[in-house]
Amino acid sequence: MQVTPLVWIITIAVTILFFVYEFFAHVRKPHEPSIGESARWSAFYIGLALLFGVGIGVVSGWTFGGEYFAGYLTEKALSVDNLFVFLIVMTGFAVPRKYQQKVLMVGIIIALILRGGFIAIGATLIANFSWVFYIFGALLLFLAYRQAFGGHDANPADGRFMKLVHRVLPVTPDYHRDRLTVKLDGKRFVTPMLLTIIAIGFVDLIFAVDSIPAIYGLTSEAYIVFTANAFALMGLRQLFFLIGGLLERLVYLAQGLAVILAFIGVKLVFHALHVNELSFINGGQPLLWVPQVPIWFSLLFIGATILVATVASLVKTRRGIGGGGHAAQGDADTPSVEGADSAAGTHR
Fold first, then answer.
1. How many Å apart are CA 87 and CA 97, to the nearest integer?
2. Predicted pLDDT of residue 112
3. Are the C-beta atoms of 275 and 130 separated by less than 8 Å?
4. Sequence-ordered list of residues with C-beta below 8 angstroms from that of 15, at least 6 positions apart, any chain
5. What's the helix, strand, coil split of the chain in %, to 5?
6. What band does 71 get if pLDDT is binned at 50, 70 and 90?
7. How many of the other CB atoms lie within 10 Å of CB of 220?
8. For residue 328, pLDDT beyond 90
């Protein structure tokens, strides 16, 4: 796939413009988006992502188009899993509902920047060291196990990293609108809003470790990796408010993602064996008899796994709906972090 520097520049510039528009049109003025607003923009971004994939297929061939769609599906599913943790973070910090858009927007931008860095590193490693596929494969198999059995029970707001931040920075217990710092009695304090953004940035860093090896198991094209990630993150803010309580009903999403990560991990190990250069494996010669998993099968497998996990979750939880509302609801007024429920409900 031939991608010129000009295409890269245009793609990155358009991505930045989308996020700038998002901020000034929807996020700058604090408000809680309506279901209609969230649905329209979610549909717009998903439609745009699908249209872009068709464009890749038409211009560069459907092998690359299939890689894009498989990568987009995987990254979108992992991004929805991000929302569960964002939910717990914002509950732990008692972020008021009308300020959650800003937190999500900043978190998504941080995620895209971090993933951009990981994409560049991954592309360099893959281009120079074929054995990195073994590492990526082993990492994904480990992450699949952790995804299936680890859970999201811990609240990042109470983790060791945030305790260190509390020791280093003077923190006011109350929100002061959506300000990140405030001056009280002549002394500068950081607000819980800044702490929330720091916590989400830390979570984004962890999730990038899952995300980038997973998509490099589906394509070696850095351009596809970047655009699939960008489109998966676009509209994630609106999706958070659209699906609302549905997040808590996706009880099998973790298991579905674990299956996908394990599948891609095995696929990476197969690929590593197929291009093997390690002297202690088959004398440094490739194992050409090892099967290569075609992209059409990967696309079908990932799509079917997400569908089965979603349907199974909704079937299991179809009874008992109508209890509590959205776990990250937050007070309309200015709440104190001290009173937040740090034991937010989870989907595991």
1. 11
2. 86
3. yes
4. 112, 230
5. 70, 5, 25
6. very high
7. 16
8. no
First to last CA, the chain: 40
* Model pTM score: 0.78
Average pLDDT over residues 146-169: 69
**274 and 290 in contact (C-beta within 8 Å)?**
yes
CA distance 70 to 56: 13
Q: Given this model, what pLDDT does residue 237 score?
A: 81
Identify which has the larger pLDDT, 59 or 167.
59
DSSP single-letter state for residue 176: -
Q: Is 94 helix (H, G, I), strand (E, B) or coil?
A: coil
Rounded CA separation 102/121 (Å): 29
Q: What are phi and psi of 182, to 5 degrees?
A: -150, 145
As a whole number of angstroms, the distance between CA 302 and CA 250 comes to 17
Average pLDDT in the 273-288 region?
82
CA 102, CA 212: separation in Å to the nearest integer? Answer: 25
Q: Where are the alpha helices (DSSP H) in 93-191?
A: 100-128, 132-149, 160-168
